[in-house]
Amino acid sequence: MYFGVPWRKIDLFLKDIGGLSAQSCNKWSRILIEEDLEEFLEDNRGGKHSESFFDIYPELESLAKLYAIKACKRKAASFTCTELAEYLDDQYYKVTGEVKNTQQLIRSEKTCHLDLHRWGCKFDKNTAKPYWEGHERPDVVEARTKFVRNFLTNQDKYYRVEEGKDPQWNTPKKNPTVLIFHDESCFRSGETAAKRWFYSDDTTTFFNKGRGRSLMVSDFLIAHPDNPFFQLSQDEWKAAVKKYPELLEDDGIQYIERSASGSIQVGFGGYFDNDAIINQFTRLFKMLPFKQAYANHKFHVIVDNARTHSAKHYSVEDFGMKPGTRCKTDKIFYRDEDGQKQSIDCFFTTGSNKGQSKGLLILAKELGIKTSSNIRLEELKRLLNSHDAFKNISKLEMVANDYGVAVTFSPKFHCELNPIEGLWAHQKQFVRHRTDQTFPTMLKLIQKSRTNFIEKNVSLKLIRRFWRTLAAYDRGESYEDVLKMYFSSMCKANVVSHRQITNSNLND
User: Fold this and answer.
1) Which domains are delineated in the chain?
2) How far is it, in rounded angstroms, from Cα 290 to Cα 310?
3) CA 380 to CA 377: how far, in whole Å?
4) Which domain of life does the UniProt lineage start with (predicted)?
5) Second label for 392, Cα 20 to 30 Å away, from 33, 103, 376, 489?
6) Rounded to an integer, what distance in angstroms lies between the CA atom of residue 379 and that of residue 395?
7) pLDDT digits over 410-443, tens only?
8) Is residue 160 within a helix (H) or strand (E), and if so which, with residue range?
9) Cα–Cα distance between 450 and 381 in angstroms, integer?
């Protein structure tokens, strides 16, 4: 018995796959030991008893191997030996033209298992985690195409980074516009470095997972040669406070001095919800005109599609269908097809129902939408969503419009189109390599990582890669192609791992 398996079962298995049986092995072992080598070799020992399945049908082996390789590259771990056996069975009857009249597969699952190992496949731990693959979804591709063309069409008005080994900022000559990238990220004091020194197994400590305090940071990356981070000078700050004294008020966010970059301790000071984001952006919009380096400039902010950014004042989901049901807004303001401002009350102002909500059905009639008495709620919502009254912009866009700032939401699932993600990668790498898993140390390291980011001019690489990514998508490259070109292991290691990002590496 070997490995707990009786030799008789091994013998039956070898016979099943066309291998040597125990009886044959015994016979030829005796001949090899007791008789001469010539007799042992005269029957071509060491070769095959007969032609194997793939010797007879080599084209099937090619098809099966190609199928297995493609199946192993799937995002989902769904490939099995049974699937390969069934595929081979189908291909066999197609190639030979025979009619299948049995339930037995032409090549068993166990044999296909051996075939896979022979071809170089291995069954191992699945370390690649699943993710939502929506990057090439039609609506996402449409949004991405619109995003890319909008920036490439107007690229001459933005600050960009030139190509070459010694990159410099390309200053726009007309209508200069400052690109501002925004995002939030969470730093956890319980995180550790991936590697450490050990003297012996006795000194090994437990990995601290899920412990420690968290700090949520909301920051802005500026595409401008002055500084990658926005901050006013003392004189600029005094002028801003004189016009907007509310800048000195506490809104629950811990701001860097004379800046709009802020943070919140998760679990202590709340969270960056939509109200907090609106407060932070309002602060930024009030301060931008006082920055002397941005004089006579326009501003364009890019944010991701998170609900905290794209939340609207109201939607059809905030209303019930019938009178007296839920309603979160008193009035709806919108512009009609002629651009004229219009408004409609969401509550009855007269009659027996005074003070009650009108509901979607009555609102639809007042908006001139034709409906039947037995219309279903989902159909009613669809009709209302197509009306100008419910095509309202987000709260963030409304605030930005008040201050003359343009806001664009990046396409869903496309973090590579927001360079500030590279800032988080750089900062977290810096913090993790120096952390002692305490909150005070983490706070100091976050500030030092910002200084390190400026000293190494990492923003040059990130901004230039942003425009390269736009150009790649404009050429028709897919999401996968773009990642391989600029973000994957096919890039040079010192850029992909963010271990060294200096001026000498900007071409990577």
Assistant:
1) 7-118 (no CATH), 138-195+210-311+395-505 (3.30.420.10), 316-390 (no CATH)
2) 27
3) 5
4) Eukaryota
5) 376
6) 26
7) 998 888 999 999 999 999 999 988 888 888 999 9
8) strand 160-161
9) 47
